[in-house]
Design goal:
alpha/beta, five-stranded mixed β-sheet, single chain, disordered N terminus, Purple Acid Phosphatase, chain A, domain 2, globular, about 35% helix
Length: about 350
């Protein structure tokens, strides 16, 4: 009769716990749900979204805060986002008032913004607008603080292109900054008609921005390297897709030919919706930024996106309609105005 020897190893409990901890840590380090080509240095997000089972996820997009930020509105939005619990939060620029080349002043404004964002329970992805990236000094400051001014990431096999629409040559950027500064001085002094006749108001970049050839080439490669994604979202500040010829979105749109994608921008402070080739091009209004009191499309809101295994479902949530469990807008938001036209009507 053959006898089999059974070898029993009595591992100390402390060693077993160390082995388990090591294996668990190794599994946690690689977030298979998230991908980007930024592997070191500063990042334009504060932390990456958590891994989660399944294919469904949600994210929120906030719009312009500035060009006349109204105190308290963004803080209400952050509290409402904490009630809704998205997997992450995206932006489309104009995070600060900016317009300055004083780096201490820029630091103060970005510190204030990031301090408020840090209270959100979800990761936040930065995108710059003209208030954030108007000059070479501001772009350099951004890069030192957040890293790249344009980038991509993939989450659950959905591609996000974070686009910089203030991507000019150094000479043109200087011209725009100087003209813009002069126009703002006229506006601040109450000379609206002179401001409207100034060089800045005649510049096409004021409305549509620009994308450099280098940036277009970068995103063309990103798109080519991610042929099997389920969907692509393009986030940007200015509606550069309205720009004709060089410097517009056409190269990126061509690279996305026959793919499913959604374009989301801000800058105009009024909600707008358009389609191109049966695809959505959405212009967000504000999340605290200045409003035109004569426009019914100027309101504070959050774009809420739910992505299932097949496609996104999008809903605009007005801040005035997101109530807490007591039936009120959080942070005493009932005392604030979230749509200037309504507030003007109520005063009549």
């Amino acid at each position: 009769m053959e006898t089999k020897a059974i070898i029993k190893i009595n591992w100390p409990v402390s060693i077993l716990l160390l082995i388990i901890a090591f294996l668990t840590e190794g599994c946690q380090k690689a977030n298979v749900d998230f991908e980007s080509d930024i592997s070191s240095g500063k990042t334009p997000w504060n932390y990456v979204p958590s891994q989660k089972p399944g294919n469904d996820f949600t994210f929120a997009v906030i719009s312009d805060l500035n060009s006349g930020e109204r105190p308290g509105v963004f803080e209400v939005a952050v509290e409402q986002l904490n009630m809704l619990r998205p997997d992450f939060i995206l932006s489309i620029g104009d995070l600060i008032e900016g317009g300055s080349e004083d780096t201490l002043h820029l630091k103060k404004e970005f510190d204030f913004f990031d301090q408020r964002v840090s209270k959100a329970y979800a990761p936040f992805f930065h995108v710059g607008g003209n208030h954030d990236l108007t000059s070479s000094v501001m772009q350099t400051y951004w890069q030192k603080r957040y890293g790249r001014t344009y980038y991509y990431f993939v989450y659950h096999n959905v591609l996000f292109l974070q686009i910089n629409t203030e991507d000019y040559s150094q000479k043109r950027m200087s011209e725009i900054y100087t003209a813009r500064k002069r126009a703002l001085e006229l506006l601040d002094s109450g000379k609206k008609e002179l401001a409207a006749q100034s060089d800045y108001f005649k510049m096409p970049e004021r409305l549509t921005g620009e994308i450099s050839n280098e940036q277009s080439e970068y995103f063309e490669k990103v798109i080519a390297n991610h042929r099997d994604v389920k969907w692509t979202f393009l986030l940007m500040h200015k509606p550069v897709w309205r720009r004709e010829g060089d410097g517009g979105l056409s190269r990126i749109e061509k690279a996305l030919y026959k793919r499913k994608y959604t374009v989301i921008n801000g800058h105009l402070h009024e909600y707008g919706y358009a389609t191109k080739n049966n695809l959505d091009y959405i212009t967000l209004a504000t999340t605290g930024g200045g409003q035109n009191n004569k426009s019914k499309n100027a309101f504070d809101h959050i774009l809420w996106v739910t992505f299932t295994h097949a496609e996104p479902s999008m809903a605009n949530l007005k801040l005035e309609g997101i109530l807490d469990k007591t039936g009120n807008i959080p942070r005493q938001g009932d005392t604030l105005c979230f749509q200037a036209s309504k507030c003007m009507d109520s005063k009549k």
